[in-house]
Amino acid sequence: MLLCVGGGIAAYKALELVRRLRDAGARVQVAMTEGAQQFVTPLSFQALSGLPVRTSLWDSAAEQSMGHIELARWADHIVIAPATADLIARLAGGHADDLVSTLCLASAAPLTVCPAMNHHMWLHPATQANIDLLRQRGAQVVGPEDGPLAEGESGPGRLAQVPQIVAALAHPDSAVPSVPSSDSRLRGVRLVISAGPTYEDLDPVRYIGNRSSGKMGFALAQAAAARGAQVVLVAGPVQLPTPAGVERINVRSAAQMRQAVMDALPADIYIGAAAVSDYTPKVVCPQKMKKTAQTTGMSLELVRTPDILAEVAQQTGALKLVVGFAAETHDVATYARGKLVNKRLDLIIANRVGVAGGGFESDDNAATAYWADGEREFASMSKAQLAGQLLDLISQRLDA
């Protein structure tokens, strides 16, 4: 395995990648760009790989017998981690102006690219065009992931987790696709996504709400925007940053969410990922409700809120796909398929809540997608990764 390390802060994670690859039985040779050496020393990689590290095309000792050609032919597989925006651009352009780019150009070995950069750089049309070109030439792309970045911002640009990279190398067909994917049909498509809870006020102090964090809906919005979709995100009261390239509309109540969603139509796809309150107080007290010494209990009269998902599904015109979410505590398949039919949805994503490691407030989730004549399970993974896989399925269902 020839590991080419690019010049980004994520270069330190490549040390762990060397160790994991060797644990998996691979023999690893490392080549570093000049920029990579500003973050990690060649000696560190040599200590972990057990082999000399190549750093320059102008190493007279190594090049006495055309060492770069020899190394290019030695590799059974080339992995670039981290792959910076500049390195991706040079690979796409067929440059051979340093050791790493020359090795890639001179080798017929399969290529895996693991991008890592600022999210604005990743989402830039030039980077997307370059990564698409590498895919068209047969390169496997693993990552990037969505999350906090070194500069304090957040978005798609984090190097994929080392175990994910190792798994992708061992089983290429099972790799989690990066965002955006080259065969995505979402470019230019208008999506309206609702996310988070709604709060139904009792008085100026208290409200009825739920535990939805909005993380799944925000991850879908981020991933869809990265694939070139035009995304409107109707967000309940959550403390999450607005994904890059997404139009955000903040709401509080179910009635406000319904109005914002309807105003955002027409759209090609609606994804109802919000946990909308089913009931709201019939009367909102204008002042704080006070307890007294005689107060031993309280009764509230509640009324049904509008069923936003069902109402959207009845719309005609541009809508091509209506996707719902079902958070259930038991009998998940039964309730999910019931909602699919009763609300006349095209697709519903169901997950079990109230369990450790998934559902509300968690960064991870497992889910099952149901449609009229099929279903697909998604194992537990980060919500950012799940968003990418769900969008792949949604893209496929557009033509179903």
UniProtKB/TrEMBL annotation:
GO terms for biological process: coenzyme A biosynthetic process; pantothenate catabolic process. The keyword Thylakoid does not apply. It catalyses: N-[(R)-4-phosphopantothenoyl]-L-cysteine + H(+) = (R)-4'-phosphopantetheine + CO2; (R)-4'-phosphopantothenate + L-cysteine + CTP = N-[(R)-4-phosphopantothenoyl]-L-cysteine + CMP + diphosphate + H(+). Its EC number is 4.1.1.36, 6.3.2.5. Keywords: Decarboxylase, Flavoprotein, FMN, Ligase, Lyase, Magnesium, Metal-binding, Multifunctional enzyme. Residues 191-400 are annotated as: Phosphopantothenate--cysteine ligase. One of its GO terms (cellular component) is phosphopantothenoylcysteine decarboxylase complex. Pathway: Cofactor biosynthesis; coenzyme A biosynthesis; CoA from (R)-pantothenate: step 2/5; Cofactor biosynthesis; coenzyme A biosynthesis; CoA from (R)-pantothenate: step 3/5. GO terms for molecular function: FMN binding; metal ion binding; phosphopantothenate--cysteine ligase activity; phosphopantothenoylcysteine decarboxylase activity. Binds 1 FMN per subunit. InterPro entries: CoaB-like_sf, CoaBC, DNA/pantothenate-metab_flavo_C, Flavin_trans-like, Flavoprotein. It holds the Pfam family Flavoprotein. Residues 2-167 form the Flavoprotein domain. Residues 1-190 are annotated as: Phosphopantothenoylcysteine decarboxylase. In the C-terminal section; belongs to the PPC synthetase family. In the N-terminal section; belongs to the HFCD (homo-oligomeric flavin containing Cys decarboxylase) superfamily. PANTHER family: HOMO-OLIGOMERIC FLAVIN CONTAINING CYS DECARBOXYLASE FAMILY (PTHR14359), PHOSPHOPANTOTHENOYLCYSTEINE DECARBOXYLASE (PTHR14359:SF6). Catalyzes two steps in the biosynthesis of coenzyme A. In the first step cysteine is conjugated to 4'-phosphopantothenate to form 4-phosphopantothenoylcysteine, in the latter compound is decarboxylated to form 4'-phosphopantotheine. This is Coenzyme A biosynthesis bifunctional protein CoaBC. It comes from Stenotrophomonas koreensis. The lineage of its organism: Bacteria, Pseudomonadati, Pseudomonadota, Gammaproteobacteria, Lysobacterales.
